[in-house]
Amino acid sequence: MTGRLYTEVHGDPAGEAVLLSSGLGGAAGYWAAQVPALVSAGYRVVCYDQRGTGRSLQALPPDYQIKHMAQDVEHVLDELGIARCHLVGHALGGLVGLQLALEAPARVTSLALINAWAAPNPHSARCFDARLALLDHVGPRAYVEAQPIFLYPASWAAEHAQRVQAEVDHAFDHFPGADTMKARIGALRRFDVSDRLGAITVPVLVSAALDDVLVPATCSQHLLQGIKGSVAHSVAHGGHAHNITDPDTFNYALLAFLAGQL
């Protein structure tokens, strides 16, 4: 794979590096509620648009897999001269972190996994089937209009209706194309490291929302059971993107974990 990905770097160049890896949308902007808190705590924060999304519109390789996304993270770190990082990943971004910790553990100081998983499950499969059906039979607009249903609790989405609609419009305006989206969904659906979790030895924070309608909270429980010494953080309400809907609670837990206090 070639071509430099769009990357943003914030904060103290001498600070410990924290790399933020987004979920299916892939955009650096997903982390707007985390970057200021991490910068204020003295970290060097790296965000990037994943291959095929946002401002990183390079073509995807054939048989696209999570391992390719992890290799892209290594390339980003190499380009910035960063030997290792704390990696914070949301959903698909968490899978990237797990893959990197397994294949290149020297590059990972710690992992923070937000509503991630180690293996496919039938409920999430049903959700992705529905989303793909919308994409195939109705089109990209319907696909992105449905996205908030999976990301946010209904009460939060209703209260922030203008913000949610602006996000939907932005997602439609920057939709990467059906083939790219299907390849990304296919990669995450094939991901299964359930029998390798015991090989992960870096500190791991597993953060879950109990009301996530896309990824069952039991997926986080499986991660906690499989990764020795991993630390649990959960919220009752916040949805799949609880680092957005309740950023103060999530940021407090993340900073405590990074400081070794959680």
Overview of this protein structure:
By secondary structure, the chain is of the alpha/beta class. It is built from 11 helices and 7 strands. The protein has helices at 35-40, 66-80, 92-103, 122-137, 140-151, 154-159, 161-173, 178-190, 217-226, 242-245, 247-258, and strands spanning 7-11, 17-21, 44-48, 85-90, 108-114, 204-209, 231-235. The protein has a 7-stranded mixed β-sheet, sandwiched between helices. β4, α3 (92-103) and β5 (108-114) form a beta-alpha-beta unit. α4 packs antiparallel against α5 and α4 runs antiparallel to α8 (178-190). It starts with 6 loop residues before the first strand and ends with a helix. The mean pLDDT is 97.
Set down the secondary structure blueprint.
Elements: E1 7-11, E2 17-21, H1 35-40, E3 44-48, H2 66-80, E4 85-90, H3 92-103, E5 108-114, H4 122-137, H5 140-151, H6 154-159, H7 161-173, H8 178-190, E6 204-209, H9 217-226, E7 231-235, H10 242-245, H11 247-258
Parallel strand pairs: 2-3, 2-4, 4-5, 5-6, 6-7
Antiparallel strand pairs: 1-3
Protein name: Putative carbamate hydrolase RutD
Catalytic activity: carbamate + 2 H(+) = NH4(+) + CO2
EC number: 3.5.1.-
